[in-house]
Design brief:
five-stranded mixed beta barrel, 26% helix, alpha+beta, 38% strand
Length: 321
């Protein structure tokens, strides 16, 4: 997909189209400005509300503080399910607030399957854990799909916009630019892929040995130019030996995938900085068709996906696989 002019598109999105405008205008042919309610991962059948009382956040944090590791915290939260699933879910959410919580496999296990299906904040919890695990979104989505968790990639949504409209997408992206008009900020998102680059790092002691040897002597004989005579001189030889022990190391490098999107926020957020990677959970609202850039008599120009941002999380530096 060709890269569109950044500020032009953002301005068109937030200010609307006008006949006198000379810049590229965006026509929203399938979208409405008012976002629909965010769905649960899978809608639960209608029924009476849960009767179990929800604990206060202070009680849940006190509960999480009693367990020294995230795995123990998740296990303790799971045991509460027999008494109250609401209390257990709130405890799990507090456990997952720790940056050390990377237990995605436990969250996707059968014990929490019902909660993942019916709780509207389940997708946000998953996105947070994915960020704690380093933000390797492509690999984590394969794990989610193996468990039938309906969170999808931006690439899939672009390829089949009608199928994925209104569904959750998760991507690793940078904010390239943002524009604020009124109370509806619009962000230009550039999707990032994560890859691991291998190198070697020295460990332990290193040794270096320098050896210098010199040989001297005389050489006698007859030459055409000099006749009888003797030639003296020396030869110096230097040798260097270097020994070290190394171990493989891997650095995570993010790079642009070539996909871009417009992201909409409900209100301005000063903590969402430009030129930083984020794991972003969003609702896919469809594709916007750009006008003024059509070729010949074609009805449609380039398209760009539009997202409603639900949450964003800073990924950890090290990825967990």
């Amino acid at each position: 997909m060709p890269r569109l002019p950044m500020l032009t598109l953002l301005g068109a999105l937030v200010t609307g189209c006008g006949a006198a405008h000379s810049h590229v205008a965006l026509e929203d042919r399938a979208l409405t400005d008012a976002p629909a309610p965010l769905p649960a991962l899978v809608q639960a059948p209608a029924g009476p509300p849960a009767e179990d009382p929800r604990p206060s956040p202070q009680d849940a944090r006190a509960f999480a503080a009693r367990y020294p590791t995230p795995a123990l915290c998740e296990g303790a939260a799971r045991r509460i399910q027999g008494t109250s699933r609401d209390e257990a879910w709130l405890a799990l959410k507090v456990c997952a607030e720790s940056p050390a919580f990377t237990q995605l496999g436990a969250v996707l296990g059968s014990a929490w399957a019902e909660d993942l299906r019916v709780r509207p904040d389940a997708a946000n919890l998953i996105a947070r854990v994915v960020a704690h695990r380093g933000g390797s979104v492509d690999g984590e989505l394969r794990l989610l799909h193996a468990r039938k968790v309906p969170i999808f990639s931006l690439a899939s949504a672009i390829a089949q916009p009608d199928t994925y409209r209104g569904r959750y997408v998760m991507l690793r992206a940078q904010v390239a630019d943002q524009r604020l008009e009124g109370e509806r900020p619009t962000l230009w998102l550039v999707e990032q892929g994560l890859q691991s680059v291998a190198s070697r790092r020295e460990v332990g002691m290193t040794f270096r040995t320098d050896t210098v040897s010199e040989t001297s002597g005389d050489l006698g004989g007859r030459t055409v130019l000099t006749g009888e005579g003797r030639v003296g001189g020396s030869v110096v030889t230097r040798e260097r030996t270097y020994q070290s022990t190394t171990e493989p190391t891997y650095d995570n490098i993010s790079d642009e995938t070539g996909r871009e999107a417009l992201g909409r926020l409900a209100a301005a957020d000063p903590f969402l900085e430009t030129r930083r990677d984020y794991v972003i959970l969003a609702r896919f609202d469809g594709l916007r068709v750009t006008s003024g850039m059509t070729n010949d008599d074609e009805d449609e120009g380039p398209k760009i996906p539009v997202l409603t941002i639900v949450s964003y999380h800073l990924p950890q530096a090290l990825a967990v696989y």
